[in-house]
Structures are given as C-alpha cells and as structure tokens.
C-alpha cells in the first residue's frame, strides 16, 4: 500500500510525463493541422493574410482531384509495390552482411566495411549520372518490374548493414557459443539465434527501407518515363509548376502520400516493443 | 535453410526474367518522337495536341513526357550523358547559349529562314541566337513575355494620386512611392509600401536596360554593373530600399513570391505572366504601364522580354519531323488557353485576336504588352552562364546589400569581380 | 533441429556434419563471403563504380554531351581559392555542429520518454514519427509558411505571448541556417527516436532489475547501465547523423529556393544557407560544371570520412560491445 505522499508524487510524476509528451506532440500536430487546413482550401488562398486555420469553404474536391484527375490512386499502387519490394529484400541482404561483419572473422572484413560506410558519404547528386548510365546499359529504364528502383537498395543497403552490424555486436557471445555447442552451422546461428533477436531492428529497417523508397524522387524521375508507372513523389513534384504552385493540391497529395506509411508504422509498432529473451542463457 | 534457398531461387528467377525483358522493341517504318516538357499538369492537353498533329501527319507519333520543373534539367543532363536526349524539349532562354556551346542543340536557322516572318513576333527571335546575337537560332519560340510595370489602383485611389502614365521618369516613380509608403497602425513600421525591390532579375535588369545600360558587355567578357549607367541603376534600386525605405526588405517578403498580391505594395515590376496570377489572387483592381525611364536612357525605351521555346536535340534521328512538330506547336494550331494571361503567342494572328485581348478582364490596357514586345531590343541578350551569374551571384549579392549586410560599393565590386570570373570561362 | 538420434550415433552425426558444412575450414574461409556476397555485388556495381567514375570526373572539365577534358587538379585549386566555396564549406560545418547535439539528445530524450507502457504511448510514438514519413517538400513548405517573418503563425504567437517582434527566421542571413537546423531536428527526431527505442528495448530487464535490487535509482541506472549498453546504437546514430547532415539537400532547397519562376538564388539569403550539396547540385545541373561539382563532393567526402574515421578510432573509449 503506498502512502498518500508517494501516491501524490506518483500522480504528479505521471502528469508531468504526459504534459511533456503532449507539449512535444503539439509542435508536430500544429504544422500537420496546417497542412490539413491548406489541403481543404481553394486556390490561391494560402497567401491569405492573416492566415486562417479553419478554411472558409471546405474543398473536399481537392482530394477527389488528387486521387483521380492527378492519378494519385494509380501512383500509389506503383509506390506500394516498389516500397514493399525494397523493404523486404533489404532485410535479407543487410542482415546477412551485418551478421558477417559483426560476428565473423575473414580477410578484408574491415576494408569492405570501411568501403561500405565510405560510399554512404558521397552525395547522390554526384553518383546519379553514372548510376543512370548503368541502368541505361542494363536496359532497366522504364522497366515494368521497376528493377532500377528496387535492385540497388537490395544489393547496396549500406545503412541497413551498418545498423544491423551494430545491433549484432551487442548480442552476448554466450548465445553464439550455445548455438555452436548445439551443433548449429554458422548459417544456423544466424538464422535461428541472431535473426529472431533482431526483430525490433529488422522492423525498424523495414520501415526505413519502405520510407526511403516511398519518398525517393530523383530515381523515379530518371528511371521512369511512362506515366502509368510513375510514383507518388513524381505526382507531388508536379504540383510545383514554373510560375505558380498548387499549394492546396500539394498538401492534399502529401497527406494522401503519408497515409499508407502511417498505417504501416501502426502495424510495425508492436515489433518495436519486443525485447530480447535471454531464456537461452538461463537454461 | 529450405526457406532461404527457395527465396534465393525466386530471386534469381526474377532477375533472370528482368534481364530477358529489359530490352525495348522498335516499331519499323514509323517515326516516333520523344517530346519532353516541364509542366506535368498539362500533359494531357499536350497529348491531345500531339494526337491532332498525328492526324495531320499519320507517320509521326509523339510521346509526351512531363517532368516537374525543378527536376527537368537533372533529367536532361542525365539523358545527355547517355547520348539519349529527347527529340524535342522545352528550352529555357537563359540556357540556350550554354546548351549550344555543349553541342546539344540542333541549328534551327535553316528551318527558320524558310518561314514567313510576318506571321511571327520576330523581335523576340534574337534572344535565342547563339553563341551570340549574330549567331543562328538554336531554339524556336512558341510564346513570349515582357517585364511590365504593375500598380495597385486601390492604393493610388486612397492616396488621391493619378495613375502612373506611360512615359515617366525614375524621379516621378520615386516620388509616388514615397507618398504611397505608409505606417497605418502607427507602430513605427511601414505596413504599406510604394514599390518592391528584390535581387531578382525581373526587378533589377529591367531597370538597368531602361537606363541605357546592360549587365554584361556585348562580347560577354565583362560585367558592366559596377560602372557608369549600370551602377547608377543598381544604386537607384538599392536606395529605394535602404535610403528612401519605400520597399520592404527581402527578409520581410521572404517566402511570399508574389508579394504584390497581398495588397500592401502599390507598384512593382514583374513579368507579364503575372497578369494571370494577379487576376486570381489580388483582391484589388490593378493596371499596367511602361517602366519609368532612367536618366541614362536617352528617352529610348527598351523592353526586357524573352520567349518560351522549343529546342531540338542535335543528335535526333528525325530533324525534319521534329521541326514539323515544333512549327506546329508555335503556329495557329496552338490553343490560346496555354497563353492566356500575360503570355503572348509567337503567332501574330493568335496574339492579335479578340480572344487574347480579353477586353472584359483586367488590365484594361493589355495591348500594352503587345506594344512592349515590339521594343525588345537587340541588346537584350542572356549572356552564357546566366543561371550562375544572374540567378545565383547577382541575386544573392544584391539581396545582401538590400538586407544591410554589406556596403553598396564594396559588394558591387565583389559582384562584378565574381561575374567577370564566371564569364571568363565561356 | 530434428529429432535427436541416440548416443554415439548422435556424436558421429554431429562430427560428420561439422566436417561437411560446419567444418572450421568452410566456416572460416568460405561461409563469410557467401554472407556478404549480395552486398558486395551491389557495392561494386552500384556504389563503387559510380564513386570511381565521379572521382575521375573531379579532375576533368565535363560536359555531358561531349565528355570530359582532363584538367588535373584545376578544380581543386579553384575550390581552395574561391571565397564563396569557403563560405559554403563553413555553412555546412556550422549546420552539422549545430544539428548534431540537438538532434541526438532530443531524440534520445524522446526515446526514453516513450519507452514505457503508459496508456496511449503508442499514439505518441506514432505522432513523433509523423514528420519522418512525410514528404519533405510538403513539411518544408508548411514550416516556411509558419516561420514567415510578417505573416507566420510563430511570430504571431511570439508577439501575442511575449510582446516582442519575433526573429526574421529564414529571411535574415544571421538566423536562416539555425532555422534550418531547428526544422531538421523536428523532421528527424522521430527517426532517431525509433533507432534509440530499438536499442533501449535491447537492454535486458534482468540487469535493470538487479540494479534496482542493489538500490540504484532511475537516474543512476540510466547513466550506469542503459547508456553504456546503448553506446553501439548511439555510435551508429552519431555517424549516421553526421553523414546525413553533411549531405542535407532537400530541406534546404525547399525552404530557401525562390518560388517558381522567380529566378533568384538558392541557399539564400545572401548565401547563408548555401551548403555543400546545394552547391554541388547547382554546379552539376545548372551551371554545367559537373567536374567542379564532383570535386566539391570529394571535398565533402574527405571531411566526412575524416570525422568518421576519428569516431571509429575513438569508439573503443566509450562504446561497449559484448
């Protein structure tokens, strides 16, 4: 039974906690409320002085236009396909490589890892032309399976490899030894012990992979030319024209683009909460 | 292990399939043109025009691709590197010379020479010549614009001032601007300004030209902004912001690209395409007139105007067909709705038509734009390296002066030096 | 593993398997390469190839249509002397130095704040993650609008609450860069929060419980147990943050580029937010100076590689692996 003093302290502490959480959340909610408000306004109303949060007239038609007239519905199918393929493929290649870099000793390990990190430091703008030339050479421009967009991230996921390597390095050596004693092959140790433990990191990596593909603009612009294959980011960019910007549609488009990722994040959330089970150690 | 190997096999299968289907097939006997433009929002309209063209020329079909403006040049550069430029593409007037020097554009002069010039506003043709004003045309216009002087009628009425006339001087403008700058709520800061100056080519260069000067020498070797009439023009503009304080600073107008629409500015110099913007977003009635003349102008008016144009790839397999498409899109077949507002068709008949005159809309004297178009002088040239020296260096440095972050003389000297260095590369 | 065979059979089976696949020879020498094979393939084709190409480009005067002309170290010499480039370089450095502490600490705090089972915590986590998954183009525009010196909500609130005129945010060369840092922190804190969260989840509850039994309070446990165990994650976050903030582009472009058709300067006002990748972008795609842009990219690379190298060297001092 807690004394009243302790109870008060507890309630105060809790309330403070919620207060801080809410204050921070507000800094995020306000801009998004503004985005929502702008997305429902009519043309040219963004420049209104003073700005008005609740629109005078609600233009729900903006959403209909964005989805149908501006093809966002079709684009979202393309974006979903590319993002999912990117996210899933990365999980295998990055965890395999991350495990090797973290737990195995082999010639060139540090060199390759350094190269991996080093290539992350060159800005995309400088590498995009040679990458484009490669894609042209392979015939992957405007490919029906969107290979130019998917394959590079499968095969060259430096970020994911780095992240998983860090994670795998935190796994106690005892677990690995236990696996060896049980007669596991090195692949077995990876597949049965390390991989399951890394579920939170894998979930994170999946989200990041999906996200970076979802919001990628430069590669889809360069590697796609048929309108039916275009992605959401291309659709969004189209609202910024040479002499004017369609702010309202742009906001509507962005919110729509946001939606699937929010849903995805909601689902993946529970994997973030999964902790390490050290039951193997206990036995 | 089994699941893993299955996944691996699947992956290899997909990759194999990918390599097999990667190659495109060519349709023999027909001409297929690739046409790229930077307004994806009107792709469907352009496709309709392409369809019409196809009906007139059944052996030519055109695929239209729209890339958002900000990414357009990235894609062009990538395609150029792969020696795979589109056959016809939109060209920006400030990049014609750079692209021509690179060898990317087809010389259009032979085709242009065969045209009946009386059908077109050929005063604008010179702007597209490369490598200099005596060269051949490397792009062909379909529409053009001029820098126009706008004024807010409501603010003039409230101040009891007559509207700006067609022929007037810098002093006239300055005096009006001073009378139109007010502190309405009495907090010590101006809430309404007479004019608007920013380090932006429509605001600055139009006045340089109307002081009998130019930004760069005819041989494109020297920057002329730090001497004589050029410097006089820049000083006039800078003083409006710093000394006379009749204009908001760039910091105050940050993020509002069409500040005139807020109704807080009485006058400004903008491209004529803003007619469309102001009709839609400015609550007050507005009018247009010619820019005021500076002391160095010698009474002669020079319009700062330029065309929107098409270019053809130097490597195209179908130059004649590409030209046919270009000629079609700059001719009477082009619907007027693509040039309503302040843009003008290059095809004279379209521009002089009743539909373009839009007599029932503001501004009442829209034909002033047409008259100004005739006055685009031969000395209006977009020297090479424009994106670097005009958009980046000059705009940044002039803003620096206007923000009070640097002394006028010192910064202008630095600006001229930097621009000289850039020009020396060409 | 399938059903375990009995006795000696089992032992001989294990030995046999080890000799076939699990044999130390295979494991030590071949298996690792199979693990990294897909990644190596991608690394060489899609990363190293372009890196070498663009590195060679930095020694050329390049024109996409006609190819490159070798000019040796000219580009690099020009960079050393160009005052504008010095400003670009220092802008980038300043940006990273301002962003790093703010970004890492704020997201760590956030991760700690949400690493519990409070009611509704899932909603908070989702909210904090929102900026990360939104299009930078959209949120950049909204923030630019909110931070508008004359009409934006932020200055309006500042005047209403504190009675003073708010700063000029993106309008003044003095405050523009820091404004971008703040918006970038807002944009990315959910991202690094999630990474820290995964790391925090990996701290074994048993250790924390044991420490509590020994009388350690929350704060002590955090600094003595959680932080050290979190250090590999922290290390990762720092490296990634440095690399990404040196490469910042989209946000700066969206918030400082002149509006459509304006023809003004990017990275304004007065070049105060002109960071390296903006400069590279302009040189490569607007000024037709791809070789020069590539040289700038390699200066950027040297800088980041150097800092990262130092980090990796020093990690032994503060990063605890198992």
Low-confidence stretches of chain A: 275-283
Radius of gyration of chain A: 24 Å
How is the main sheet of chain B built?
8 strands, mixed
Name the CATH superfamily classification of the largest domain in chain A: MetI-like
Number of E-state strands of chain B: 10
Question: What's the average pLDDT of chain A?
Answer: 83
Most extensive interface, residues per chain? A-C, 113 and 105 residues
Q: Which CATH architecture of the largest domain in chain B is right?
A: 3-Layer(aba) Sandwich
Summed up, the helix count of chain B is 16
Distance between the termini of chain B: 62 Å
**Percentage of residues in strands of chain B:** 5-15%
Judging from the principal axes of the Cα atoms, what is the shape of chain B?
globular
CATH-level-4 superfamily name of the largest domain in chain B: Periplasmic binding protein-like II
Helix share, percent of chain B: 25-40%
Secondary-structure element order of chain A, N to C? HHHHHHHHHHHHHH
Number of strands of chain A: 0
Determine the N-to-C terminus distance of chain A: 35 Å
Shape of chain A: flat
Please estimate the helix content of chain A: over 70%
CATH topology tier name of the largest domain in chain B: D-Maltodextrin-Binding Protein, domain 2
Describe this entry's structure for a reader.
The complex is a heterotrimer of chains A (283), B (426) and C (322). With 283 residues, chain A is mostly helical. Helix content of chain A is 71%, strand content 0%. Chain A has two domains: 4-59; 62-282, MetI-like fold, CATH 1.10.3720.10. Chain A contains 14 helices and no strands. The two termini of chain A are 35 Å apart. In chain B, strands 1, 2, 3, 6, 7, 8, 9 and 10 form an eight-stranded mixed β-sheet that branches. In chain B, strands 4-5 form a two-stranded antiparallel sheet. Chain B is 40% helix and 13% strand. Chain B has helices spanning 2-21, 43-56, 69-81, 96-102, 109-113, 153-159, 170-180, 201-209, 228-242, 274-281, 319-329, 348-351, 354-357, 367-374, 386-402, 408-424, and strands at 31-37, 60-66, 88-91, 129-130, 136-137, 140-152, 267-271, 286-289, 305-312, 344-345. The two termini of chain C are 27 Å apart. Chain C contains 14 helices and two strands, in the order H-H-H-E-E-H-H-H-H-H-H-H-H-H-H-H. Chain C has a two-stranded antiparallel ribbon with strand order 1-2. Chains A and C meet through helix 1, helix 3, helix 4, helix 5 and helix 6 of A and helix 1, helix 2, helix 3, helix 5 and helix 6 of C.
């Amino acid at each position: 039974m807690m004394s009243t003093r302790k109870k008060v302290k507890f309630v105060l502490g809790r309330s403070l906690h919620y207060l801080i959480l809410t204050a921070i959340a507000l800094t995020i909610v306000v801009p998004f409320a503004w985005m929502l408000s702008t997305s429902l306004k009519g043309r040219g109303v963004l420049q209104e002085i003073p700005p008005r949060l609740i629109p005078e007239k609600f233009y729900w038609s903006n959403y209909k236009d964005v989805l149908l007239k501006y093809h966002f519905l079709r684009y979202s199918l393309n974006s979903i396909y590319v993002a999912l393929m990117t996210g899933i493929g990365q999980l295998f290649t990055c965890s395999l490589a991350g495990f090797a870099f973290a737990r195995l000793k082999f010639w060139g390990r540090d060199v390759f890892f350094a190269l991996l990190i080093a290539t992350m430091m060159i800005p995309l703008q400088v590498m995009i032309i040679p990458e484009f030339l490669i894609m042209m050479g392979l015939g992957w421009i405007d490919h029906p399976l969107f290979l130019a967009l998917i394959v590079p991230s499968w095969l060259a996921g430096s970020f994911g490899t780095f992240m998983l390597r860090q994670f795998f390095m935190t796994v106690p050596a005892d677990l690995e030894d236990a696996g060896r004693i049980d007669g596991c092959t090195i692949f077995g140790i990876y597949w049965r012990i390390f991989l399951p433990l890394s579920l939170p990191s894998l979930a994170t990596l999946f989200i990041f992979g999906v996200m970076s593909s979802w919001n990628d603009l430069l590669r889809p612009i360069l590697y796609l030319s048929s309108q039916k294959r275009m992605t959401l980011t291309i659709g969004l960019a189209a609202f910024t024209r040479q002499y004017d910007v369609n702010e309202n549609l742009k906001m509507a488009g962005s919110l729509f683009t946001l939606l699937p990722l929010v849903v995805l994040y909601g689902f993946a959330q529970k994997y973030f909460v999964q902790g390490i089970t050290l039951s193997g150690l206990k036995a | 292990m089994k699941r893993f190997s299955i996944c691996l096999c699947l992956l290899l299968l997909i990759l194999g399939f990918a390599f097999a289907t990667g190659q495109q097939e060519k349709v023999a006997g027909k001409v297929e043109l690739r046409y790229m433009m930077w307004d994806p929002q009107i792709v469907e309209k352009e496709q309709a025009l392409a369809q019409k063209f196809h009906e007139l020329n059944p052996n030519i079909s055109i695929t239209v691709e729209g890339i958002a403006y900000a990414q357009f040049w990235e894609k062009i550069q990538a395609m150029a590197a792969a020696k795979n430029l589109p056959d016809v593409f939109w060209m920006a007037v400030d990049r014609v010379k750079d692209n021509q020097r690179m060898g990317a554009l087809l010389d259009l002069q032979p085709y242009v020479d065969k045209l009946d010039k009386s059908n077109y506003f050929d005063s604008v043709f010179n702007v597209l010549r490369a490598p200099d004003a005596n060269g051949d045309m490397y792009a062909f216009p379909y529409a053009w614009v001029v820098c126009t002087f706008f004024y807010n009628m409501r603010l003039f009425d409230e101040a009891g001032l007559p509207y700006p006339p067609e022929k007037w001087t810098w002093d006239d403008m300055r005096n009006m601007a001073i009378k139109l700058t007010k502190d309405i709520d009495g907090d010590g800061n101006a809430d309404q300004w007479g004019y608007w100056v920013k380090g932006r080519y429509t605001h600055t260069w139009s006045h340089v030209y109307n002081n009998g000067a130019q930004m760069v020498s005819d041989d494109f070797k020297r920057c002329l902004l730090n001497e004589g009439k050029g410097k006089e023009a820049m000083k006039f503009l800078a003083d409006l912001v710093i000394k006379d304080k009749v204009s908001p600073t760039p910091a105050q107008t940050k993020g509002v690209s069409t500040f005139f629409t807020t109704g807080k500015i009485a006058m400004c110099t903008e491209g004529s395409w803003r007619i469309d913007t102001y009709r839609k977003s400015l609550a007050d009635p507005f009018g247009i007139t010619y820019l005021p003349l500076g002391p160095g102008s010698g009474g002669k008016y020079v319009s700062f105007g330029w065309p929107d144009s098409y270019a053809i790839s130097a490597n195209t397999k179908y130059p004649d067909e590409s030209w046919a498409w270009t000629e079609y899109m700059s001719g009477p077949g082009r619907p007027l709705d693509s040039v309503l507002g302040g843009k003008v068709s290059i095809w004279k008949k379209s521009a002089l038509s009743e539909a373009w005159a839009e007599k029932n809309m503001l501004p009442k004297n829209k034909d002033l734009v047409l008259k100004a178009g005739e006055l685009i002088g031969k000395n209006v040239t977009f020297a090479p390296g424009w994106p670097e020296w005009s958009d980046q260096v000059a705009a940044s440095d002039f803003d620096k002066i206007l923000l009070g972050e640097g002394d006028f003389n010192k910064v202008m000297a630095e600006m001229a030096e930097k621009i000289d260095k850039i020009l020396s590369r060409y | 593993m399938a059903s375990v065979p009995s006795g000696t059979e089992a032992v001989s089976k294990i030995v046999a398997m080890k000799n076939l696949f699990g044999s130390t020879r295979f494991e030590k020498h071949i298996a690792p390469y199979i693990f990294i094979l897909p990644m190596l393939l991608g690394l060489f084709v899609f990363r190293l190839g372009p890196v070498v190409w663009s590195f060679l480009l930095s020694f050329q005067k390049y024109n996409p249509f006609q190819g490159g002309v070798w000019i040796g170290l000219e580009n690099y010499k020009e960079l050393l002397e160009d005052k504008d480039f010095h400003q670009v370089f220092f802008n980038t450095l300043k940006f990273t130095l301002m962003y790093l502490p703010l970004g890492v600490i704020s997201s760590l705090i956030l991760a700690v704040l949400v690493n519990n089972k409070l009611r509704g915590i899932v909603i908070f986590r989702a909210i904090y993650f929102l900026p990360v998954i939104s299009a930078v183009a959209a949120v950049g525009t909204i923030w630019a609008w909110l931070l508008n010196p004359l009409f934006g909500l932020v200055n309006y609130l500042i005047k209403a609450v504190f009675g003073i005129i708010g700063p000029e945010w993106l309008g003044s060369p003095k405050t523009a860069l820091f404004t971008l840092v703040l918006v970038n922190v807002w944009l990315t804190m959910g991202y690094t929060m999630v990474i820290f969260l995964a790391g925090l989840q990996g701290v074994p509850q048993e250790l924390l419980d044991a420490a509590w039994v020994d009388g350690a309070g929350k704060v002590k446990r955090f600094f003595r147990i959680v932080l050290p165990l979190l250090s590999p994650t922290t290390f990762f976050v720092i490296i990634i943050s440095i690399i990404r903030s040196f490469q910042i582009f989209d946000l700066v472009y969206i918030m400082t580029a002149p509006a459509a058709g304006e023809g003004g300067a990017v990275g304004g006002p007065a070049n105060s937010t002109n960071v390296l990748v903006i400069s590279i972008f302009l040189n490569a795609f607007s000024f037709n100076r791809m070789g020069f842009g590539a040289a700038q990219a390699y200066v950027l690379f040297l800088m980041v590689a150097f800092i990262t190298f130092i980090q990796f060297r020093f990690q032994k001092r503060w990063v605890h692996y198992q």
